[in-house]
Amino acid sequence: MTDQPAVYVPVDKIGIRRRASASIAVIGNPNSGKSTLFNRLTGLRQTTGNYPGVTVERHSGIVQLNGTALELIDLPGIYCLGGFSTDERIAVDVILGRMDGSPRPDGLLIVLDATHLYQGLYLLQQLMEMQLPTVVALTMTDAATASGVDISIEVLQRHLGGLPICPVVATTGRGLEDLKAALEDIAHAPAPAIPESWPELSGTADQLMQETGGLLPRIDVIQALIHPDSKRAALLEERLGAGVLQSVRDSLFGDEPPQAAEARHRYRWAREVLREAQTQAPLFDRFGAQTMRWFNRPWPATLMFFAIMALVFQAVFSWATPLMDAIDAGASGLSGWVGGLLPDNAFSSFLTDGVIAGVGSVIVFLPQILILFLFIIVLEDSGYLARAAFLMDRVMRGVGLSGQSVIPMLSSFACAVPAIMATRVIPNRRDRIATILAAPFMTCSARLPVYALLIAAFVPDRSVGWFNLQGVVLLGLYLLGIAGGLATAWLMKRSALRGPKPQFALALPEFRWPNPQTVSIKLLDRARVFLRRAGSVIFIVAIVVWALAYFPRSAGIEADLKAATAEVQATRSGEDLAAEIRHLEHEAAAAQLEQSFLGRAGRLVEPVFRPLGWDWRVSAAVIAGFPAREVVVAVMGTIYAVGEEAEESSLAGKLRSATWPDGRPIFTLPMVLGLLLFYAWCLQCAATIAVIRRETNSWRWPVFAWTYMTALGYGAALLVYQLGTAPG
Amino acid sequence: MTLRELRPGQFARIEKVDARQPGVVRLMVLGLIEGVEVQHANSAIGGDPMEISVYGTAISVRKQQAGCFRISPLASND
User: Fold this and answer.
1) Interface of chain B toward chain A, CB-CB under 8 angstroms
2) CA distances from A325 to A5, A488, A663 (A)
3) What pLDDT sits at residue A686?
4) pTM attached to this predicted model
5) Are residues A305 and A241 in the same domain?
6) What homologous superfamily is domain B3-74 in, according to CATH?
């Protein structure tokens, strides 16, 4: 690397000259350390975009080699090219260049997990049939050694027709340089040998390819044979006649599903390779493995699952408090400082009541949201979510789904958008849609600000046994979301989405310490998304709401205020006078707010929400929250900063002192409970609606989800408020 | 005897798989085929699903599908 200046190519140039550099697809089993390796190779030079037309995220990055650069395309972790799930179909389409906007990759980087070589070799064989230049990265070699597994690279390589195999430890970077050197040569590498595991299939594929004059590439012919219902099969049948293809299938697969025959052949070969290339000591001898095994026993594991969930809720509420208090104090300090600097006019109100109160009231929740995301990311990265799916399969069966739906539902506690995309691992479309409809019920991080605000304002901060009452109420709200989601899935699976019971087959990864680099990249990404939203959407909404709440100014009210002030100045003095003036000013502010644009609009919709016990201000905030629910807090922050409760420093205090014109408090227990229920169940998120539209490829489901959830939230709030306020 | 009857901690060899039953092919694709040695490592509460270990990989198998795997138990060396 001494001649670095001579060969230095600026990173931004490489992106533009993509044609010149080759693109390599990175593929491997789930939890094979693929993401860690990808992050290691590309560092922060990553981009996430979409393949046009489909919602699949295209995650790619640039790896710098000596004098050249390659584009790496990250693909979902899969076990086979069977096309059971959307994820598997995506991987096949990308590798074959069938995805629009993504040309066929020039080569494959296949990630093999040394501790799970058995399954890895299965996928590897299928990928070798693609006949693309290939480099193999053997990851987790340290973990394999620690568990007594010894792998001979030479023997393995011999069985794989001389494929380059590079052992790496992605977490420490060992072996990375050798891997980069192998990648450098990938463009000139010959296509891999055809695996020897199933000569009959290979021979038949070659023969059919010749007979059809290269109508389909080799891998397509194989897929057409194995998947009789596919488009490719229809194409091949058209050319050869259905009878010919069927008799070929009969001789290859017998009367069993083709994939069963494929599994038998390929795994038999994988076992022969393993027998020669791998020596294994008994796995359960080590203390760590024994401890893990004890913890994975039915009852300890289930109790641990609930303990972890309880810990997450406690942490979100109590660990974040000091930071949140600091941000809150900073915001009100800033607001006071700015207010003191400027004369009392529209611009000063715009800065303090609009910008600082609005955006500040949302930023305050950044610590809570980051703690929540940290937990979800760690659970994901350590492989625990699959364990949770295993433990909860029985429960999910009760609502007509399988453990597979647990993973998207748990991710949904952070955000429903990635969760809905995560439903792609669910093979059956009906089960997938039922899970998509259940996911938005889970309490996402954007609901947290609303919950946190109302709980802090109206639930006493005292302990109940070991727990804090506020934490318990929050847990209750989470359970309410879960109940709503499960009930929805159950109803759907019994009506519109009725179908066969879903199967459940899942590899359970062992616990792995999360990689700090991967966790921090993901966490920073979430913080960026949140702050960008606070800086754009929420900022604009806060300004608009401020303007609507501030204008028009009524000259009459100003004049009345002046006259009344003059009158009390003449009759009172000292403390009494100051208090009286403050009272008059607040009355004037309330009157101004009421006749503002927002006040008038709020009155218009008030009748709709009046039966729920909401005044026009709450109604206006709720309506503003339909595009993105965290906006609600910002809107309340602005409305209440402008209005009569301005003397209370915290928004919680302002809510507590808000009253109806006749002096009754607005935020009574039934009203607050109803409001919380409304937020628990209502679908106030344009991003979720958009992602449901894209993932289900129709407007039917997002429209249904929105209508259904809004009706449910409204109905629940109505019921609670009416029951709670009924006489007697 | 089928995989369904294998007790926690016990080892066995898979003798015959009935691939025509629903959900079985997915398990075969994960490596549960004739001739391999497996262990019933654990289970969820109520014994269903079972955690079946094959070549060091744990696979979640529901009891219903476990009934489609005919096995012969091996002497436990645990």
Assistant:
1) 17, 19-20, 22-31, 33-36, 41-49, 51, 54-62, 65, 77-78
2) 50, 38, 30
3) 80
4) 0.79
5) no
6) Ferrous iron transport protein A (FeoA) (2.30.30.90)
